[in-house]
Write a structure and sequence with these properties.
This protein has eleven helices and ten strands. The chain has 252 residues and is an alpha/beta fold. The strands form two sheets. The chain has a six-stranded mixed sheet, with helices on both faces. The chain has a four-stranded mixed sheet with strand order 4-6-8-9. Strand 1 and strand 2 form a beta hairpin. Helix content is 49%, strand content 17%. This is Ethylmalonyl-CoA decarboxylase. It catalyses: (2S)-ethylmalonyl-CoA + H(+) = butanoyl-CoA + CO2; (S)-methylmalonyl-CoA + H(+) = propanoyl-CoA + CO2; (2R)-ethylmalonyl-CoA + H(+) = butanoyl-CoA + CO2. Pfam families: ECH_1.
Length: 252
């Protein structure tokens, strides 16, 4: 199994369990995210958490060894469309969702984290939108979501176009990460939610609904799909296929 879902004291936890491949997303992880998002709609869930197994990677994005078989725009669009809509649903969930970033979060992994409400990042971790290295753009809606959430324009443009993972402290400075933690990730999570859990869960849910009103507008979903489409268009181009081939050869 490529994921696990646990619930403890009102906190629903989704963990990608592929540390041997940097917790990269495969089809099974996509199915797991779908289940996780559905489960968060239950009344006994007060917070959601996404993390990766181990201490090296939160998520490295799509598993190229799985998705390299996608050649055409249409084939790429099928996956990007599904992931973009999943991350949109994640962003507008009725409960606050925390990305517990235990290690590197790059590409689609950074997009998953961007769809969450909070991003707690390990002191030694890095994160970034590195899709440009593969001659594509973000394809799961992460750029649009960050823009709609109010990330500063120049910081967002720099994050996406430079395609470089940034250290935790810098990610806090530019407004991407919420807080840096050191030590055990579950202890850091417990400390972070402690004050919020002191109040009735309806409070957090009510504020989440209030603050995501703009995200639920039809035009935002349309922009997210346009982002996914743009990536699919670039996906079938030769520069992308060449970059993927070079990456896979280097891994061998």
């Amino acid at each position: 199994m490529s994921f696990r879902i646990d619930q403890l004291n009102g906190i629903l936890q989704f963990q990608i369990t592929r540390p041997h491949i940097h917790n990269a997303v495969n089809h099974e992880v996509i199915e797991g995210l779908t289940l996780f998002i559905e489960r968060m709609k239950q009344p006994d869930v007060h917070f959601g958490v996404i993390t990766g197994e181990g201490d090296k990677a939160f998520c490295s994005g799509g598993d190229l060894s799985v998705f390299h078989s996608l050649v055409t725009e249409a084939e790429a669009w099928e996956v990007h469309n599904r992931m973009a809509m999943l991350l949109y649903e994640l962003a507008v969930q009725p409960v606050p969702v925390i990305a517990l970033i235990n290690g590197t979060a790059i590409g689609g992994g950074a997009e998953i984290a961007s769809a969450c409400d909070y991003r707690l990042i390990k002191k030694t971790a890095k994160a970034g939108f590195v899709q440009g290295r593969l001659a594509i753009t973000s394809g799961w809606g992460g750029t649009t979501l960050l823009h709609e959430k109010g990330m500063r324009y120049d910081h967002l443009l720099q994050l996406t176009t430079e395609a470089e993972p940034l250290p935790a402290d810098r990610l806090v400075d530019i407004g991407w990460a919420t807080e840096v933690y050191d030590g055990d990730k579950w202890a850091a999570l417990s400390k972070f939610v402690h004050k919020m859990k002191a109040h009735h869960p309806t409070v957090a849910k009510a504020y989440k609904e209030l603050l995501t009103t703009k995200l639920r507008e039809a035009k935002v979903k349309e922009r997210i799909l346009n982002e996914a489409r743009q990536c699919a268009v670039l996906w079938e181009k030769e520069p992308h296929h060449a970059a993927v081939a070079q990456f896979l050869n280097r891994k061998k």
